[in-house]
Amino acid sequence: MHSRRHFIKALVLSASIAAIGAPLGAHAADTIKVGILHSLSGTMAISETALKNTALLAIEEINANGGVLGKQLEPVVVDPASDWPLFSEKARQLISQDKVAVVFGCWTSVSRKSVNPVFKELNGLLFYPVQYEGEELEKNVFYTGAAPNQQAIPAVEYLLSEEGGAAKRFVLLGTDYVYPRTTNKILRAFLHAKGVKNEDIYEEYTPFGHSDYQTIIANIKKFAAAGKKTAVVSTINGDSNVPFYKELGNAGLKATDVPVVAFSVGEEELRGVDTKPLIGHLAAWNYFESLKNPTNDAFIAKYKDWAKKNGVPNADSVVTNDPMEATYVGINLWKQAVEKAGTTDTDKVIAALSGQTFKAPSGFTLTLDKTNHHLHKPVFIGEVRADGQFDVVWKTKAPIRAQPWSPYIAGNESKQGL
Amino acid sequence: MKFLSNFVFRLGLWCAAMALAVSAHAAVHPDTLVGFAGDFSGRIAAIEALGAEGGDDARRILDALEAGNLGVIDNRVLIVEGDTVLDAASGEAVTDILASEVDTLTVNNRIRRALSSARAALILISGSQPERLAAANTLGESASPTLLPLFERALAAEEDASVRAVLIRAAARVNLTDPDPTLRRKAAQDLGSVTDPAVRNLLAALVGKTGEGSAATWAEPDASVREAAAESLRAIDRRITLAQSTGTIFTGLSLGSILLLAALGLAITYGVMGVINMAHGELLMVGAYATFVVQGLFRTYLPNWIDAYVIVALPVAFTIAALVGVVMERLVLRHLYGRPLESLLATWGLSLVLIQAARVIFGPQNLELANPTWMSGGIDLGAGVVLPFNRIVIIFFAGFVLLLLWMMMQKTRLGMFVRAVTQNRAMAGCVGVPTARVDTLAFAIGSGVAGLGGVALSQIANVGPAMGQGYIVDAFMVVVLGGVGQLAGAVWAALGLGVVSKFLEGWAGAVIAKILVLLFIIIFIQKRPQGIFALKGRFADD
Amino acid sequence: MRTPLTLRLLQSTPRSGWLALAIFAAVAWIGVPLAHLVVPEGHPLYLSAYTVSLVGKILCYMVVAVAMDLIWGYAGILSLGHGLFFALGGYAFGMYLMRQIGRDGSYGADLPDFMVFLDWKELPWYWLGSDSFLWAIFLTMALPGVVAFIFGYFAFRSRIKGVYFSIITQALTYAAMLLFFRNETGFGGNNGFTDFKRILGFDITSGATRVVLFALSATLLMLCLILGRYLIRSRFGRVLASIRDAESRVMFIGYNPLHYKLFIWTLSAILCGLAGALYVPQVGIINPSEMSPANSIEIAVWVAVGGRGTLIGAVIGAGIVSLAKSFFTVTVPEYWPFFLGGIFIVVTLYLPNGVVGLWRRLWAQRKATDAAPAEDPTPAAAIKGATA
């Protein structure tokens, strides 16, 4: 009869489970802990690993300059493994067990949605560095990526302009999740406002990880054959971009015929593609590595050094991109706010953050909005070059204020700020 | 004729000028270049003007612009070549300005398009035959009334039949709107040999009515023109339908060939040993990474032979994947024979380890693999249907791998052993087949084939640590649908799934197509639990 | 005369087992609530919200593992699609939680946010009744149950077995995942359900709610163990085991395996659904990636690590693997797949009966060495211990 042993073991087990979870004791008071919540394994590791690196670089840099409030920053890196429930568990752990002062993390919308309630409940502070769909404003979250009006709308305006090719028909192509859906909904309303009719808009979604774009490219060609200048707006996400662009190149859709403007393709994604057939296709971001200014030159040099020093694979070919810049800016804004507030207390830091400015690698001095937790950001439109970088062909004169609640979505008119 | 056209170029000015142009300028007049210092439309105008001037100097400046070497300082238009700065108009060196001071002009899609038209117009008159043909195609796509004089002038001088045909069709597109009905009828007839949906739309507009109800009038007043247009329309529609159905079948075959390459290795290992190898996808990944390494070596040491890297990668990928397979078999799977469900878990662990190993060694980002030139581009069937060379090559490659495997299985002693072990392991052992060695070899071959599949995948899909995960479920479906240990079954299953998915996708979209295919497999297995081709043999219980 | 059911239930578990269950119940129902709600923060006995939710989540996993063990360990059917039933239960209850948000969503509408956003004007028909708690509970069991019943009926009737069955369950969950990923399906697409506010009117983030959910998860686990124990020791369980070991022979004797398999399969799915329903309010999100084939494989891994064919093994396996994942993802964030993958390989290679098997072997060896001076070391005892 073994059952007694079983149940005793069960007891021991549950006790030990409880023990592991119990508080790990007091921690050193001479450092400030900073959580980094980016997937280092699973499907999102491809994008998020570079953000973890950037965050570590920024923390190292701040520490080398004397830290914050006289204390060194101590990064706490965890791996939520592209598993959304794990994101909320790890967020809870960072805030309530590790007692971090701030968390930098998340990439996908679903991971942000998964952690939002945790940050709200425990009054934590999250910096989210990726361009996203808007329709959200949380007291505990600062959004250092672009809202739709800081990326999607200027890009489509450019396509409509004489200079951008005066497109009359639009293919809205995306991966089936909330960011492409929202962005395309906003764009459709925006295009209607510009006089583009529904029959001149073709919207199509593919599942995650879709790798066969033959049918879709054939459909785009059919659509483009109708006789008006056509452009493709792509919100295809992650790995699917490589097969999409390869198919595009081989099917002979050139940028001079049907330009594709992408919102999720940057320098890091293009590392996985042979860009020679893609010259001239577009991307819209708030930062490009190819921007020439002293701040950016220094940023790139620092990152390349850091990558070499820390043995990042393929360190000689690392690139910087928009979400990395947003991470870097976010950490520095937080540092300034903590210094202004004189404490890491969440509410005081949130108050101190409003109106903070920082000279960003994009060459502009970015301001954190006083009410809506988003950055005022410049918009650049770049064309793909043969070396995988972007040539900036258009940019805004000054940073634009974010509209997280898009005026192109019904019911948002009354919403502004927190 | 290519698939798309509709650009309206304001080229009339220089087309007319071209007819009068005096050839052989000594240099470009500086006034022509003033536009470059101005705004965007000024630059386009300057490009057009350069095209109108013609000559080597114009070409030199256009080349510099395209290469991003043309710059402007204080209204002076300059060409930067390395450290030297030249005056664009005269071509003479400028000494008072440093190369680093010159801000070069941005080339965007509009400029690039204007450039290619200007270039095509220059070439259409003076280039070699292939150059003229390409130029005629480029201009033909954007046929507009302003280009008509150029077409007519070129037609007058052109002797090559293929270039003439393109030019006649280009001119016909413009003439469709000519006030003279004879010209219109001729144009409608000429366009019957086109397979361009854009032209089809032009013709379709002619045979339709405009206006509402009884007030509607024919868009084309002349009945004979309408008749000619309708006839051409029918011919075009026939060809478009043909091209598009060929295209759909091709996409299905292509998807099927990829599924087949992903599943062939699995069919062997699964068939012989009954081992569910969840790390099979990672063997594909190993093959693709091997291709990446070979490409890197070629780029460093044999840059002139870069186009051959895919060929060299084949044996390399096969060997490395086979070695990984042997290690897996010897260290892990060997101990799990007869316990297929446990082997599933162990190989799942192996797959986690292999993925993370790739991530740590090569980094988490996707790797860039360029198609060699002979695998770039494709066969244009018209109607927007292009059969890309990389996919064609992969279809043939899948057939080739299949043939090799079939020969191995049917014609060699090892193949006979493999078949024997697949059918009845105990009996094969009794009659002296060294089952353990056959297992190792079969696993090595299956893994090596997966490596070959990885090479093929690297040419169309992304290469990253988790790339194998995207294929593993599909590969299992192919093997199960086809019947265990059956090459023929795997072939039918892969091609069938490929073509069916593509037809469904055209009808219902990618997601629903995938769901329907999976449901179909589930239902099919109910009817034929052993797959399309069940193993023949005596099974009381398994 | 047959003994009454209650008595048989009582007899199926020995007295020591009941004692252990009672202690476990006391900890879960009294100890944890006290430690979380009454003990002040900072006190060594204080249980943080993090710990309570983490352990609560793992308790749900343990229920799933037991359900998996019932079909894999005792009926020899390996399902690679159990994540589907778990997720279906989660979605069924998630619908209720979404309705409980009421007008507190970011659009302040009656419909869930994602529906407002897709311009839906009214709830689709399958959301009917989703505002009723009782209906949600019913759906939590009925939905996975019905899906499992239909699928199982056809699959078992066609005598699909072994690897084939595993692969088509994988196809089933994969197809369902793709379906739920679609925004048009009406379940929030990739984002799924999140941002829950309350349950039966109680604030979902409050300590009391958390403790109640925890206690419910523990109760469900105990019920599963008792029920499982009862089933496998009954005549039904013995028929099931013989189907696992020699299905044809069982058929020749005159039993119809279909009924037995179908019953345990459907029961297993319902238990998964209940676990899913308790899981969702504790982790605060349900999305289609719960249905990914990888997640379902992980469930099988829990059982294999713990030791299949023993209920306690499934519980231990789920605990060990989940804790290892939580632990390694923090301590060695970039290398944890090596450890986890390594564990799977080592366990399947060297611990065919899992951790429980190892424990028994060690125990038997110790007994043998203790007894050695007096009598012969008995390998038979070791074997008996390992196979019991």
Q: How would you characterize this protein structure?
A:
The complex is a heterotrimer of chains A (418), B (542) and C (388). With 418 residues, chain A is of the alpha/beta class. Helix content of chain A is 39%, strand content 16%. Chain A contains 12 helices and 14 strands. The longest helix of chain A has 20 residues, at 45-64. Chain A starts with a helix and ends in a 23-residue tail after the last strand. Among the domains of chain B are: 12-156, no CATH class; 246-472, no CATH class. Helix content of chain B is 66%, strand content 5%. In chain B, the strands form 3 sheets. Chain B has a 5-stranded antiparallel β-sheet with strand order 4-3-2-1-5. The radius of gyration of chain B is 31 Å and the shape is globular. The model of chain B is unreliable at 1-26 and 538-542 (pLDDT under 50). Chain C has helices at 5-12, 15-38, 49-72, 82-101, 113-117, 133-157, 162-181, 207-233, 235-245, 247-253, 257-283, 293-306, 311-331, 336-350, 354-371, 379-387, and strands spanning 193-194, 198-199, 202-203, 285-286. Chain C has 388 residues and is an all-alpha fold. In chain C, α4 (82-101) crosses α11. A two-stranded antiparallel sheet of chain C has the order 1-4. In chain C, strands 2-3 form a two-stranded antiparallel sheet. At the A-C interface, α1, α3, α4 and α6 of A face α2, α3, α5, α13 and α15 of C.
In short:
The complex is a heterotrimer of chains A (418), B (542) and C (388). Chain A is α/β, with parallel strands linked by helices and 418 residues long.
Strand content of chain A: 15-25%
Total number of strands of chain B: 9
Output the strand order for the largest sheet of chain A: 7-6-8-9-10-13-14
Number of domains of chain A: 2
What's the CATH class of the largest domain in chain A, please?
Alpha Beta
Order of secondary-structure elements of chain B: HHHHEEEEEHHHHHHEEHHHHEEHHHHHHH
Number of strand segments of chain A: 14
The parts of chain B where pLDDT drops under 50 for at least 5 residues are 1-26, 538-542
Strand content of chain B: 5-15%
Q: Largest beta sheet of chain A, briefly? A: 7 strands, mixed
H/E order of the elements of chain A? HEHEHEHEEHEHEHEHEHEHHHEEEE
Largest interface: A-B, 67 and 72 residues
Structural category of chain A is alpha/beta
Please, how many helices of chain A? 12
- Rg estimate of chain A, integer Å: 23 Å
Strand order of the largest sheet of chain B: 4-3-2-1-5
